[in-house]
């Protein structure tokens, strides 16, 4: 039997991180946790409870409410992991532009991050987990046996996000708006004070601007085989 490890997949938004992390987890029989979905669920909660005024958040109200924000994952149709907020399936809503526009603001709040990180660390105690996010290899599991940092050009990433929204029937946004959202989130994610997005020194870098999904999946499996051999 192969030893169980922790696999941390970090990187920029819309690099297809989640899809590849999910595929890898399924291939090797590991649990998969999308930590971006957790920050998105908190954002949805704050929006629904009128905690935003423009781009500022009522921090006191959010901090008081956080213990009542329960985020869980359950397998839905085709075994897909779906996100639940206080027992309600919010998988579709957390991917909307309304949430995407505000999530970086929520993800920059120290007390929110501390709470999410604590929950994520608890999910990894038994290992055998693939977790994707921004700070998994640097903050959540600095001891992870395998770390991948995924990147791709902003144009390629915006195109992917745009195609995804279109495929879901969302025609309300233009490509330029999506590109703006992608670059703006990069800026906020990399320059925030609390755990900014950065590559761990011991991470393997994957630039998938010009890679097919198959090539990526094969590359990841190879890295996994190397990591469990050691
Ligand atoms: O991966 P995503 O696009 O669903 O992430 C949503 C936001 O949450 C994004 O602005 C980055 C932030 N995030 C984070 O700060 N830390 C994580 N571990 C995961 C996501």
Give the topology.
Elements: E1 6-11, H1 17-28, E2 31-34, H2 35-48, E3 52-53, E4 56-57, H3 59-65, E5 71-75, E6 81-85, E7 88-89, H4 97-107, H5 110-123, E8 129-133, H6 136-140, E9 146-151, H7 154-167, H8 175-191, E10 204-207, H9 213-229
Parallel strand pairs: 1-8, 1-9, 2-8, 9-10
Antiparallel strand pairs: 3-4, 5-6, 6-7
Task: Give your account of this protein's structure.
Helix 1 packs across helix 9 (213-229). By secondary structure, this protein is of the alpha/beta class. It starts with 5 loop residues before the first strand and ends with a helix. The longest helix has 17 residues, at 175-191. A hairpin with a 5-residue loop joins strand 5 (71-75) and strand 6. The protein is 48% helix and 18% strand. It has nine helices and ten strands. It has one domain: P-loop containing nucleotide triphosphate hydrolases (Rossmann fold), CATH 3.40.50.300. The model has no long low-confidence stretch (mean pLDDT 94). The strands form three sheets. It has a five-stranded parallel beta sheet. Strands 5-6-7 form a three-stranded antiparallel beta sheet. A two-stranded antiparallel ribbon has the order 3-4. It binds 2'-deoxycytidine-5'-monophosphate (DC). Residues 13, 35-36, 39-40, 103-104, 107, 133-135, 185, 189 line the site of 2'-deoxycytidine-5'-monophosphate (DC).
């Amino acid at each position: 039997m192969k030893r169980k490890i922790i696999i941390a997949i970090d990187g920029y938004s819309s690099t297809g991180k989640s899809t590849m992390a999910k595929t890898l987890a399924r291939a090797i029989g590991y649990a998969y946790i999308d930590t971006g979905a957790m920050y998105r669920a908190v954002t949805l909660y704050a929006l629904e409870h009128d905690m935003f005024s423009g781009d500022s958040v009522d921090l006191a109200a959010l901090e008081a409410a956080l213990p009542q924000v329960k985020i869980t994952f359950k397998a839905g149709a085709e075994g897909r992991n779906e996100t639940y907020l206080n027992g309600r399936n919010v998988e579709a809503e957390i991917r909307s532009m309304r949430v995407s526009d505000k999530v970086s603001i929520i993800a920059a709040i120290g007390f929110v991050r501390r709470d999410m990180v604590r929950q994520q660390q608890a999910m990894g105690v038994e290992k055998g987990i693939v977790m994707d996010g921004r700070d998994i290899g640097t903050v959540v599991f600095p001891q992870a046996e395998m770390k991948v940092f995924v990147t791709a050009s902003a144009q390629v990433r915006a195109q992917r996000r745009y195609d995804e929204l279109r495929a879901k029937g969302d025609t309300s946004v233009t490509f330029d708006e999506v590109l703006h959202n992608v670059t703006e989130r990069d800026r906020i994610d990399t320059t925030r004070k609390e755990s900014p997005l950065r590559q761990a020194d011991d991470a393997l870098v994957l630039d998938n601007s010009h890679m097919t999904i198959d090539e990526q999946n094969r590359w990841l499996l190879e890295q996994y085989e190397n990591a469990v051999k050691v």
